[in-house]
Structure formats: C-alpha cells, structure tokens
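Q: I'm writing up a methods section and want to include an example of the input and output format. Could you take the sequence below and give the corresponding predicted structure tokens, formatted cleanly so I can copy it straight into the document?
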Amino acid sequence: MRWVALVVLCSACGPTANAPVGGVHPVYVFAAASLTEAFKALPAHDGLAWIYNFAGSPTLVTQIENGAQADVLASADTANMDRLEKDGLLAETPRVFAHNKLEIVVAAGNPKGIHSLADLTRSDIIYISAAPTVPAGKYASQILARAGVTVTPKSLETDVKSVVGKIELGEADAGIVYVTDVTAAGVKVQGVLIPDSENVVATYPAAVLKSARNRAWAEGFIGDLLSAQGQAVLHGYGFLPA
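A: Here is the clean output for your methods example:
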C-alpha cells in the first residue's frame, strides 16, 4: 500500500504538473536526435531545468500532434516545423539557431576504402540511410542527386543515431549523416568529406509551442540557444552558426 501511495504521489509530478520540482521549473524540449550531445552540454538556466526528448524530427512532430506535453521543438529542418505551423500548434515564428553539413560515415579505419559518394554504389558496400521523411534522409537524397549517384539504401532508419549505430556495430558499411554525429561518435567511426558542390546545409529552427505551460520559461531555453554561450556550445560540437 505504501508503494501504491508513492506511485500516486509521484504521478502528480509528471510533465503535466505546473509545480516546480525541488524549486526548479522543468521545460520539456523536443529536439532532433542530432542535437543530443550538444543540448546535454548546454548550461543550466537559473530556476529552470531542460528535460529532453530526442528523436527524429517527424517522430517528434507526430508526438506533439498527438498531444504529448512539450514546451519547445528544435527541429533539424524547416519542413517539419512548417508542419506544426500549419497545424496551428506554434506559439511564435520559429527562429534558426544553428546550421549543419553532412558527410559519409564509415567504420574506424575506413576498411572498405570509401572515399567518395560514387563508392556507395559498389556491390560490396552496404549503404543505409535515415528514412526520407527524416531530415538527414532527405538531405542524403539531395546530396546523391547533386552528385549524380544512384544507390538504394539497404535499410531506412528512424534517425541519424540509428545510422551511426549500425556502422559502429558493423551491420552496414556507410551512411550519410551530419558532421556533428560523426564527431559525437568519437573513435568508433570516421567521416569521409562530401565536397561543398555536392553537400547541403541543414537549417535548425526552434519555436515555443502553444502547449507550453509557461511561455517565458520556454523562451528562456531558446534565448539560451541564441546567446553567445549557447552558440559557443553548439560550435564546440561542430554546428555552424545561426
């Protein structure tokens, strides 16, 4: 009975509660998976705590559309943010806080000798990609089209972290992900440069949602992102300036 009572008590402290936990107000930030390491390194804000939900941008949008409690969305593209704007779920005009580029991710040491996008078409290469609805997957398709390379992914992943994870485990040989994801994976993988003439620049917008329990708290998170300190943290993880 004591355990049941504790569960009931704790349920009042969930995402829908307005009361601060330990004197700190939680701000629920739904963020693209590629932002994981950088966002976790953002300094705490006085009186506020950033509570993150990381996933592919379309997954986050679907969760918000289905009523998930979220205060801020930080997407890896403008298309998914536009989707929420059309739904009437944004409280403000989105603001761009970072940019990113992409590169080919391969296993450490590049054992298959992949040096260009054209190498992805080789019969001995298992190429995988994020799904077309995921920003990284969309960008990958654009890059391949620019390079005149036609290759069919052996699997389509829900986000870039899944792509990198399969390369780490040896389940695939190559994928196209953000430069920041290759950096975040450390020595487990390495990147192969994609020339600027074939690359694309990913745009990252953030916006306060109408479901935000306190707009000022949510604005505090975006303000921190755009501050000199926030921009320095993002730059340290390989993101390009807003």
